[in-house]
Hints:
The protein has helices spanning 2-10, 26-37, 55-61, 82-93, and strands at residues 15-21, 44-50, 67-70, 73-77. By secondary structure, it is of the alpha+beta class.
Amino acid sequence: MLSLMSNRQTNFPKRQVILYTRPGCHLCDEAKQQMHAAACKDEYTLQEIDIESDGELLGRYQYDIPVITVDGVEAFRHRLTSEMFRESLRNRAGACPPSRP
Length: 101
């Protein structure tokens, strides 16, 4: 069953995840740890963007980082858990049906 599920998930394109961050952001570091703990690295590509590199991004996100988008849609702001991140990736991909007891 596990191998079938893994094969099923690989039929979907990888999610495009962007982490808006800045140097010294401890919440951003925590977000990256939670993303890693989600154990679904093969399901997405990650791009980190330093908001200090762009005046518009700095103005938009200065007090709100981290901001995480999935396929161009804001999915998280400030905090997330590994479970929330994994669920967001899979719900958007349609890869996993809801859990059953």
